[in-house]
Amino acid sequence: MSDIPVLDTRAPTGLTPGSNAAEKLTKRLRRQAGQAIVDYGMIRDGERIMVCLSGGKDSYTLLDTLLHLQQVAPVSFTLRAVNLDQKQPGFPEHVLPNYLAGLGVDYEIIERDTYSVVTEKIAPGATMCGLCSRLRRGILYRYARENGFTRIALGHHRDDIVETMFLNMFHGARLAAMPPKLKSDDGGNVVIRPLAYCAEAEIEKYSRLKQFPIIPCNLCGSQENLARQNVKAMLADWERIDPGRCERIFRSMTRIAPSQMADGALFDFAGLEADAHIP
Fold first, then answer.
1. Given its phi and psi angles, is residue 173 left (phi above 0), alpha (psi -120 to 50 degrees) or beta?
2. Structure pTM?
3. Hey, which residues does 176 pair with through a beta bridge?
């Protein structure tokens, strides 16, 4: 099979291997991931972690970071990189096995033809992402349970989490996002997002620095989620006008004051009364 176009992995100007800037970026991402793991109790001694590898910049950075932390962390844990080959036309089947074998990493490629299922059920021109992701999640969750993994690691980063919060606000009228640590609906899996504190722009730089062999996520020809792209553009505008705003939004999600919101299920507004002993 011929190669398909991949992300331009040339290191950006001023960020070359071994440079001071490259070292700072690497240390920052690893420190942020380590802090998120500690803050949310993501990894305990003896964990068996399934690292979901899509071939995108985020999942490559996740695996790279966890491999480093595996060497320096005070707890012992094992890793297996798992990719789901969904049989999209043009998928470069050799890229991930070659990369993972070169690292000497324990890995498995799961082959399931979900592409045919999705194209059969979704009208031409409509986005396939929703059904595709549900099928993918079900297969990976089942694999994790059947193979005794105690954690499923995903590559979602800080910007994914913030974008999801605004999507739920704008389109679902609820305040919810992607938690750094999550128990699946069926209770059978624990999902962790070690890159929860990491900015997408820095992951992008790191990916170019490391020259990961990126596989595009649009092999199926499906259009990008327009709502998410609109939110991403909105946040990019805000960040340009006020640098650091996205980081502050994320930090605000970690400092919620239920009594200052309006959810009666989280705070007893109906029963709120003044203290009787105050004259």
1. left
2. 0.90
3. none
Whose tokens are 């800080």? That residue is: 158
Evaluate the CA torsion angle 143, 147, 150, 152 in order and state its sign: negative
**pLDDT average per 10 residues of sequence, the chain (279 residues):** 42 72 96 98 97 96 98 96 88 93 96 81 69 84 95 97 96 96 90 98 96 79 72 96 97 96 96 83
Q: How far is residue 266's CA from residue 249's CA, in Å, rounded to a whole number?
A: 21
Tokens found for residue 4: 């398909």
Partnered with residue 77 across adjacent β-strands are 47
d(CA 78, CA 72): 13
